[in-house]
Amino acid sequence: MARPKTFDTDAVLEKALDLFWKDGYERASLSDLLEAMGIQRSSFYNTFEDKRTLFLQVLDAYIKRVNDDFIIATLEASSNGRDGITKIFTDYITYFASDPDCKGCLLVNTQVEVAPHDAEVAARIEATITDVITAFADAIKRGQAAVTIKQDLDPMQTAQFLVNTLTGLRVLGRRTHHREAFQNIVDTALSVLG
């Protein structure tokens, strides 16, 4: 008979997320995960089955938190489009400039490390990026309607550019936490909006 679970699954997932984010999927060994999560091997297998299943749960939680609950929600809440776009980039500057560990972004790190060898992970990331690009394009259209964004911009092309710039910031976040570097990139990207 299996013993009842004696830990908070969300708290344990958060600890796993931190380790995967810092070390990456491959470098995060099962021993490292068990230590970070503070659970026994049997509890791990009973709850998560294996490392990959755990990682997919962590990735889904991260996507919901960062892309759905922050990026997409911020863009959708912005009636003039531009304020939402600016907030996202400003918040990213603040985050990356204050991250002494230079972890970057779990999604982008995974896109580079895992997605080339895992079709399921690649599909999740691609769907997420598509959703974010669409949300940016919709915000740009609202900005054009509110006359806060230049009228002659193609919303989809501009959205792709902004998401690519955001991805670049996330990569830069792996090597530095110098605010000026992030600010220069953001200022240049936002200048496209007019």
Order of helices and strands: HHHHHHHHH
Average pLDDT across residues?
94
The name of the CATH topology of the domain at 59-191 is Tetracycline Repressor, domain 2
Helix residue percentage: over 70%
How far from one another are the termini? 65 Å
CATH H level of the domain at 59-191: which superfamily?
Tetracycline Repressor, domain 2
Give start-end ranges of low-pLDDT stretches: none
Please summarize the sheet with the most strands: none
The structural class is mainly alpha
Count of distinct strands: 0
The DSSP helix count reads: 9
Please give the CATH architecture of the domain at 59-191: Orthogonal Bundle
Strand content: under 5%
- CATH C-level name of the domain at 59-191: Mainly Alpha
Shape: elongated
Mind telling me the C-alpha Rg? 19 Å
Q: What labels describe this entry?
A:
194 residues; mainly alpha; Tetracycline Repressor, domain 2
How are the elements arranged and paired?
Blueprint: H1 9-23, H2 30-37, H3 41-48, H4 51-77, H5 82-97, H6 106-113, H7 119-145, H8 155-172, H9 179-191
Account of the protein in words:
This protein has 194 residues and is mainly α. It has a domain at 59-191: Tetracycline Repressor, domain 2 (Orthogonal Bundle). The protein has 9 helices and no strands. It has helices spanning 9-23, 30-37, 41-48, 51-77, 82-97, 106-113, 119-145, 155-172, 179-191. Helix 1 crosses helix 2 and helix 5 (82-97) runs antiparallel to helix 9 (179-191). The longest helix is centred in the N-terminal third of the chain and has 27 residues, at 51-77. The protein starts with 8 loop residues before the first helix and ends with a helix. The model has no long low-confidence stretch (mean pLDDT 94).
